[in-house]
Design brief:
The complex is a heterotrimer of chains A (278), B (313) and C (205). Chain B has 313 residues and is α/β, with parallel strands linked by helices. Chain B has helices at 52-60, 82-88, 109-114, 120-132, 137-140, 149-160, 179-194, 206-212, 242-250, 284-288, and strands at residues 3-17, 23-37, 41-46, 67-75, 78-79, 93-96, 167-171, 198-203, 215-220, 223-229, 295-297, 300-302. Chain C has six helices and nine strands, in the order βββαβββαααβαβαβ. The chains are: A mainly alpha (278), B alpha/beta (313), C alpha/beta (205).
Amino acid sequence: MKHDRKEKNRRKSTILFLAAAVLILAAVTAAGIILEGTATETDFSRTNLAPGTGGLFGTDWMGRDMFARTLAGLSLSIRIGILTAAVSAVIALLAGTAAATLGRRADAVISWCIDLVMGIPHILLVMLISIACGRGFAGVVAGVALSHWPSLARVIRGEVIQLRQAPYILVAEKLGVSKFQNVRRHMIPHLLPQFLTGLILLFPHAILHEASVTFLGFGLSSEQPAIGVILSESMQYLTTGRWWLALFPGLALVLAVILFAVLGERLRQLMDPSSVHE
Amino acid sequence: MEPILEIEHMSVYFTQYERGIRRRVLPVIRDLTLSVEAGQIVAVVGASGSGKSLLAHGILGILPYNSHMEGEIRYAGEPLPRERSAELRGKEIVLIPQGVNYLDPLMKVGAQLRKGSRDEKVRERTSRALRRYGLSEETEEMYPFELSGGMARRVLIASAVTGIPRLIIADEPTPGLDVRAAKRILGHFRELADEGAGILFITHDLEQALTVADQVAVFYAGETIEVASAADFSDVENLRHPFTRAIWRAMPEHGFHPVSGTQPYPGSRETGCSFAGQCSASTETCRETDLIPLRECCGGMVRCLHPGKEASL
Amino acid sequence: MRLEARDITFHYPGRKKKPVLKKFSIAIESGERVGLRAPSGRGKTTLCRLLAGYEKPQKGQVLLDGRPLAGYRGACPVQMVWQHPETVVDPLLRLKDTLAEAGEIELELTEKLHIEEGWLERFPTELSGGELQRFCLARALHSGTRFLLCDEISAMLDLVTQAQIWDLLLKESEKRDLGLLVVSHNEALMERVCTRVVDLPWDNS
């Protein structure tokens, strides 16, 4: 073309960003697993050191390295986040599709469940389920997974209802395309972007709720280096001026959450078919 | 008479993503020239995909952000950059869009036409505009979904004339209406033109265009290929471009003759006349000359090396 | 073959008092091209949808050779072509995949419809209405089609495309002895195309 506008290629930068974000999150997760031993190692000769002298993030009252603890905690959070988000998303997919396809009564029941779960404050529900399931890892995972599906289920229900009425699907049926083929060719490709984006956007919620429940003492046990545990323990030392105990783990958590949220948003943009015009 | 709108050598390009991250630039309008005088209805006729609607968007300054425009648009003798058209649109330059989809479904018709103003004068003006098109007070209290196709079209026209527009751009204002309703709508355009507005009437339907227009500009693959007066269409011999003749002959009452082939896709065209692929009178030179200019010819304009020749029938 | 609607009454859900069609009957024989005339909003599209089996009438029956339409398995012998082609093609599928849903389409047919090779690889948003309508026609004219219901198929198209499409449809319907129902606002077109014209009854109340 004649004109040579140097404009940045949005798709390219989005893909680069996605790759970088995934890489960072993967690295944090892996590093956390490796450092899990270091994170619980106590060294009473080096207690309460500020960042600098006591490693990058300082040490706590038992001489544990805060950098290792933060990474281990974040890694644990991300793993729990992925697990719970995946379980939640699968529940959402099943519930949403069932509501849209199994007739009016099933729809009423499932929609009622959606409203019910959405009506109870998340944190309360997570706490209740977690206690009922005996706290710890299993409790937290059950709590978060069972409380985060409704909004995605609602989206999927709406999408499936709309797809079932879509003229192009009706026409395909008329042309003798089988039900199964119709689902595979027309339904899944339309649902997949919604589903994946919903899945990724569930991560930040799941991570935050896991950390808050643990912080409140209804989640993971205090031996585990979880962000929630670190934060709640550091509360009693904050007043004595040991700010690094809460600042770095808290900041790391916020950054991870933001990263996931932006990741989901960018992915949505990329998968939107109208993005060819961007 | 001073033209109210002059477009010279306008081109519009789109940047699009192909598979993955590769990009390409598509020329969707190429070297377009057109002018509208006050009191005149100029019909822009062309197949879908020929760039008609983009022309309207270009004038209104609402082209999407992945596009850019070259050439010049002058409004009332002065250049019309994006900022100025933003200032004038809705006041002096108005758009009559295709259908009800352009109305806010959650807002009553009256409130929408008043644009939220509670001023008594505005209220008076809008109800007068509605009355003018045979829409009663009750229409103001209706939501867009309660309107029939014809009523919606009249509401859209009324919304355009609540002020005193000098340039009206009507983008396919009649599809889906039966002949009587369409005629009535077109009659309203004639009235508005007689009151002094310039009207750009964008349509795919030549028959309809001919019932009201003074001038007809024919679009093909993003180019104006002919500008003719409506009277020229009474006899095929007066028409200059082979494509215009082909449309004329394709009218059901003129024989319903098809020509073979299709309008080329933007970007797929190499050099030469874009109609060469469908035209039997095309020669080697037609296919090789790059950018054939639009030139004066027997009282109109034509973009053809051999004006007056027939396309294949 | 004979496609007929016998005394059909139809109303949309929740509008029992305002039926779109009341005790309406129509029959189309193979080889016939029946025009359907009525003002806007009078139920022409609804009738097409009923005849094609997209809707079920509350009373009466739609029969193909005396058998209910629902009894035919596989690709339906009655196909409808819609006014807005962009709504009936899956936006996420390349057009060759959409076309493949109708089974084998003869190359000859796509050539006659002037469908260009390059279009097959494209997505619906990249093509114009006229181009998409050609695909819809190719799809609806699959080898098993006996009746074609054309609901304002050329109202949105320019004259040249319109003439091309009707030229093909006339030839094709004569060659294959198809029955056509033609809905249009254009009197001149109806006169050119149809063997007879039916008016939809005005009074539905």
